[in-house]
Amino acid sequence: MHIAVLMANTDESEFAQGHPKDGSKFEALLQEVRPDWRVSVYSVKDGQFPAAGARYDGWIITGSPASVHDGDAWVGQLFGLIRQIVADGVPLFGACFGHQAIAKALGGVVGFNPGGWVFGLTETEMEGQRLRLYAAHKEQVLALPEGAVVVGGNADCPVGSFAIGRHVLTTQYHPEMTPEFIAALVQEMRGQLPDAVVDSAARSLDHVADRAAIAARIVRFFEGA
Fold first, then answer.
1. Which of 33, 72, 126, 140 has its CA 20 to 30 A from that of 100?
2. Residue 1 pLDDT more than 90?
3. Range of the domain at 32
């Protein structure tokens, strides 16, 4: 299977340069379950998009510090590609920014989290299964696009995951993040986020995310779509 990753992460800081890019993170996640899968990465945040008519077995849209409300040209171009992928019926998975971008591109509503930042390890539900996943977001999906159904969430983020038929699946969280990366990110964000947010995130890391479970679910999604 050949998956295209649309890399939306705009962080080009020194910290970011010291860690794998999101495309590599998702490639590693998938290949933990399916070592023979191929992954092609497009840095859409730099205007690098696949050629018109490019065909893949599935698509992933990554997270990003950017907002789906930004007026940058690449964001609008991404919305257009999302609508085309959905129209073609090809499996599309979105995480964090990707989750929000799919919702907004298809007519949903994205806005600020009522409770502010969600950062660190959090517990959510997805299709009846309790999962621990890493989070780093201040916005969330507030209203679903037409045809979408909620398949997961929690009290702080009711639309934590949604699906459209068998060809769209999303999560507000970060399945690609490793325990080592999130620990480093929490320390990096000291002084950039409120102390209470960072302290809470640090305490949450006494546990680790259910990486194997979410990786297996993503793979089943692509294979079953």
1. 33
2. yes
3. 2-224
